[in-house]
Design brief:
By secondary structure, this protein is mainly alpha-helical. The protein has one domain. The protein is 52% helix and 10% strand. It is built from 5 helices and 2 strands. It has a two-stranded antiparallel ribbon. Helix 1 runs parallel beside helix 3. The longest helix is centred in the N-terminal third of the chain and has 22 residues. The termini are far apart.
């Protein structure tokens, strides 16, 4: 199958495959935001509790290899956060949800 002739089909298949991979990783690390309990996969990401996510990702050839590495063995330095909580932790060191409690 030539890429040029099937570009859209290949892109759609790759997007679906990456979505399934992300869902597996998120499920393995708790399946919901560790702060606010958001569980819709589209809003979730993996957070490095102690920072260093960019450096960690640079160790891998691709994002796919990086995500696959998280499935090999559950790491204690990772957690699931929604994008809002992840940004709040990055920007302020805490999340507004924790302040509300």
């Amino acid at each position: 199958m030539l890429y040029a002739n099937n570009r859209e089909k290949i892109k759609a298949r790759t997007k679906e495959w990456r979505s399934r991979l992300k869902a597996k990783v998120v499920k393995m690390y708790g399946g919901k935001c560790a702060c606010c309990n958001e569980d819709r996969i589209v809003f979730l990401c993996i957070d490095h509790k102690n920072g260093g996510g960019n450096k960690n990702r640079e160790e891998f050839v691709s994002h796919t290899a990086y995500w696959r590495s998280m499935l090999v063995k559950k790491r204690k330095d990772l957690r699931v956060l929604c994008h809002n909580c992840n940004f709040a932790y990055w920007a302020t060191g805490t999340c507004p949800h924790k302040e509300d409690q």
